[in-house]
User: Fold these one by one.
Assistant:
Number 1:
Amino acid sequence: MIATKELLEKYARLAVRTGINLQKGQKVIINAELACAEFARMCAKAAYEAGAAGVEMDWTDEESARLRYLNSTEEYLTTIPQWYVDKADYQDDQDFAYLYIDSDDPDAFAGVPAERIAMAQTARRKAIKRHGDNVSCNRVSWSIVALPTEKWAKKVFPGCTAEEAMDRLYDAIFKAVRLYEEDPVKAWEDHLAKLQERAKWLTEQKFDALRVTTGLGTDLTVGLADDHIWGLGGEERSNGAHQPFVANMPTEEVFTAPHNKKINGVVKSSMPLNYNGQLIDGMSFTFENGKVVDFDATLGKDVLSHLLDTDAGARSLGEVALVPCKSPIYESGIFFYNTLFDENASCHLALGSCYPTCIKNGAALTNEDVDALGGNDSAIHVDFMFGTDDLTVTGLRGDEEIPVFVKGNWA
């Protein structure tokens, strides 16, 4: 068995000490599926060993959620109780750190009407928008790590027995998060330093836009927000706490905010997207002046349609991220059916809200200020992949054209 107790405990310590970078005396919320209870308790133990004042578990269960989506009244699905909002606000105000253990079954909600999931998710996001803003502005410390479940593993490795599939998925995850390194914490420090060099160079270029083309038919010009800056998976609290953290483990990307009125052309997805337990594939979008004016998908078009109808901001972009084909996740050749991993194998865009931290002093700006600079606002932020091994990315600055990516890798 690949996932020994020793390795899992090492993984839990990495999630706590590098992921959320727990500070002594801080409190923690661990969000996990019931199937991940043993590992969640390891994370709680690691948090207490790191000096946590307290740890709370926030359990989820996809099978129960499926029953709710299929059978609840529309009123119930769209009514968010005040206690739920108050809980989120209280946790933020009390400086909780958030550790999310991702273990989604890619087919969890197959067959559930897309509009029912969309209405429930939209109501939830709108109700706790303050918390969502705190996360996107890095006012709280948060991190997402992944743990295999049998259903997820069998989806990724369908030709294997359940035990073989679990071993292979554990191995792939452990490699992606650098857990096999003698000192994973140091390995992450070195990795983030390299990403920081890329982000610094891109910020210094002050590009007006990026033009991206691929052999699949993508030809898109993405204007960049005024005063944009490039970020990476290694974040830092924006509230003066001087607490660095790693929001996504793994992470291979550098990213920034597009201008929500300056996106034009066509982009075609290069990988399927697992969104809320439903697959969308063969996506294409046509943009005019920052908005999706036409779209299609070979699979899950109804799910995509409801996604784009979430609100006005859902039809624009909140993120453009660059990931080379030389990333270890791309080179593994594994499609994970999980955005946490798949977005780190490919350049990607995100429909919906931007990260205000990708705009100079963005965490201190109002939503109206961010919008005036071109940053997008929405209740959603959904990544989809467009990168290929023939991708070209060109930085546009005035009359200059500067190569950024050639044949899927850094120029």
Number 2:
Amino acid sequence: MRFLIVDAFTESVFGGNPAGIVILDKGMDFPSDEIMVKTAAELRYSETAFIKQLGEKEFNIRYFTPAAEVELCGHATIGSFAAMLHLGMIKDNDIYMNHTLSGDLNIKVENGYVMMDMASPVKINEISTREAIDELYEIMGVKYDESLGLIPQMISTGLIDIMMPVKDEVELEKIDPDMKALTELSRKYEVVGVHAFTADVKAVEIAGEDQLQTHARNFAPLYDIDEEAATGTSNGALTYYFYLNDMLLPSKKCKVIQGEKMQRPSVIMTSLEEKADGQLIQVGGSAVVLAEGEIYL
């Protein structure tokens, strides 16, 4: 099986979020779950994607952390399609179908830039009592600022995360979670982890278009990920949080800067569009291949 190491949500190696990408040989079925977990653990990245090609423009991708399978992973999806473009398996400027445990998602590749549909956004719950809010912020090592007028909410665009607002970049930098306590809290709320973001969002102009800009950090120790440099599903959920809290208008885009604390700066672009049956959220970015080789199983 072919494998690649791809840095996603960046235009240069050693930036963004690295993912392992494993491409199954033609006609091969997925290995056992145990083998895929062990492979992910051996590659030592937060997620490894296993790709099975079903047709010229159709793929089935499964995602594994070093501990377990997850339904969807944004940065590993961006990395997967960048890897296949690098290998000549797909063509630039085309649309593809990705079958995942979170549903069937369209992937658009345009000038080397990968933009993916997210699963339908859903607000699962919120943390509204002061006692529960203080518990969360104490575990994360900071204090809740009631003046923000925002509370943490559990949102999913494929995976459920707690969206946790903090005042600004200074406060974001201060976050230092108690990983054991956060693991137990994540288990209690049945979430992947916590996605902290700066509430002092700024309007920036990119290519003549106003976009919302924020900074974020992501923590998922329940899945053996203390901190992640770029998270597509979490930033898709954050985009929906902005929409629900009247911070983002439909048809507008977001630019999320993540990974700065880890010295792996990442840029994740998102968009939200109103549809007849709900909202369509897309997440995208560029990616670069760092290494490739063969896995013998």
Number 3:
Amino acid sequence: MRCPFCGAPETRVVETRSSDEGRVNRRRRECPACSNRFTTYERLEEKGYLWVIKKNGRREAFDRDKLIKGFQHACEKLDVSIDTIDAAVRHIEDYIRSTGQGEVSTAVIGEMAANALRDINKVAYVRFASVYREFTDIESFTKEIAQLSAK
């Protein structure tokens, strides 16, 4: 592993831990050249791709990091831990893979993400929904908040 700080070609593993129910290896590494430490994550590459069908019909490989970034953006400056976000994304990804279908629409992923965020944090849910459902006016926000408050 190349050092991200100084570019040295070799680093050494200082500590290894299993996380995410044994699905991910977390490694603390140290660069012998500059003595900086950093963390890497090793994850099993799933056999066969999971394809996402975009609104315009284009297909692209499922990218869990995009989903995590969407959750993080919705939860920005809120009291939501990265572990909570990671667990929600893992649940969505596991469910989609368990269906056995090789393709899933962004609409399905978006609804699952919105439902997960509704359970995690109401403000994060409204933030996500405003982008996902493309709110264009204050009435859209008001209607969504009223429905959320009624539940």
